[in-house]
Write a structure and sequence with these properties.
The complex is a heterodimer of chains A (271) and B (302). With 271 residues, chain A is an all-alpha fold. Chain A contains eleven helices and no strands. Helix content of chain A is 75%, strand content 0%. With 302 residues, chain B is mostly helical. Chain B is built from 13 helices and two strands, in the order ααββααααααααααα. In chain B, helix 4 runs parallel beside helix 8 (172-196), helix 9 (200-208) runs antiparallel to helix 10 (213-241) and helix 10 (213-241) runs antiparallel to helix 13. Chain B starts with 15 loop residues before the first helix and ends with a helix. The chains are: A mainly alpha (271), B mainly alpha (302).
Chain lengths: 271, 302
Amino acid sequence: MASYTFHRKNRPLALYAGAFAVFIYLPIMFIPLFSFNSGWYVKFPLESFTFHWYVDLFQREQLMRALWNSIKVALFVSFFSTLIAIPAALAVARYRMPGKSAAIGFIMLPLVLPGIIMGTSILGLMNWFNVTLSLVTVTIGQMVICLPYAIAVLLPRFIGVGRALEEASADLGEPPLRTFFRVTLPIALPGVLACLLMTFTISFEEYFMAFFLGGTEITLPIYIWTQLRFPDDFPSLLALATLIITFSFILVFASLRLARIGESLTQEGAR
Amino acid sequence: MTVTSVSGPAPARPSAITRFLHRHEGWRGHLLLAPALILMTVAIIGPMWMTLMMSTWTVRGFDIIVTPGLANYTAMANNPMFPVLIWRTLEIALTCTIVTVVLVYPVAYFLAFQTGRSKAIWLLVLTLPFWTSYLLRVFAWRVVLGNEGAINSGLMSLGVISEPLSWLLYSQTAVTIVLAHSWAAFAIVPIFVSLEKINRSYLEAAADLGDTPARRFWRITFPLSLPGVVAAFIMMFVPTMGEYITPIMVGGPDSMMVGNLVQAMYGPMANWPAGAALAVVMMITIGLASLAFVGLNRLVQR
């Protein structure tokens, strides 16, 4: 495709795309801006620079509890959804089997179900079986949300993994499971790490499941949601939001970089 | 390819199950898919069935009467507020979906055809914000649009306006803008993927046969990107239909959506069966609208 020259640079289009990028970042950029502003109210002109709102965060016990809850849930969600997604992605990538496209469609279903419907429906079922709502129910709900993304992240890694290497391993007498752990998995490892980071981020920020299935336990997004009612807390929420956004940008960036490393590795594996 | 999911060290003489799995690739695949399918069944099919059942129950006082009936649905049909609510939700979701898909198409086109070596960076730049919490993105808009928010106070301190533009916050317009912004990545990615898949040699062939760039676009690029456009429609329409945070955060009394009522039924109003019936109606609306998109696509592609 190197000889492909039909799409000469179109400057207006590039400008439009640039403007669009600015538009999607602009509202988010106001959050950090005002989080360092000493005024109680979020408005121009800015007053003086302060770290006060950040310091204030560390004195909130409820916030610390919500943060800890979020981290716990996100760790479990990312571990288990990746664990389930690995064999599923492998099956989708490698196996010819009847009913495969139906199964894929079924697994991808959460992508086209509104969060409120999944949340209330699982709530109804849990209630019917008298399951007490807790962080465990939140974890299960969020695993469902994460699974389609996890499989989508892993799939290209498994399609790419060098089959030649696997066949070589099998020919040299390695049993299948050892081939998987010594050849397939190491090559796909960047993809697996990317998947762990991605699902961690999704869970960390997920709102609907945490809201409907959390019972009395709250996670960070629910904490933000409940605090929004109190105008006095607004500047502190801006500081908290700044920290969360920075943190998730770093995680997602790392995840996408890892996925790209995985890409180059799998190409090498295929060679 | 000989990966199986049988655990433990390989036995000297394979068991019957191992031999069976070794011979049947399909079963091996299903076994690997099983955990995911079981989770989905437990957490989607079960709950959906439950919601469907629950929508036929009724609440009397503090009791739930589990005798099936259509009371919730007839109550909805007889309530003049309900069609208004459904219609408004459809209007908001459709407006923001159509506007976003139209606005985003050129961006996806740029991404697929014009970015060259910097494609990965552009893709990262355009999708990164959407991985941050959706709650925080809506929150950000409240900061921007509020009566004392960035736009109003900024314009006022510059002397452009003397009092806040009240339509910015607490309006249906605000809800539409914020929803479009929140879910734009769901529209960019499918369109980008379908444009990326187009075989460039078709375009070369058309050019060799004398087609102008505009004709190439309308006769090749655009029709081949339609599946992505339909996917973008559905991916964006679905979450916006089920929305209830945005109307609370930046909408006013005239922008309440079906999702708000569902949430109220499960929350303060404590009438789960009525909420379940609303959820069922919402699902049917989404299903019908998605079918309409797909049908429209078929019609256009002929």
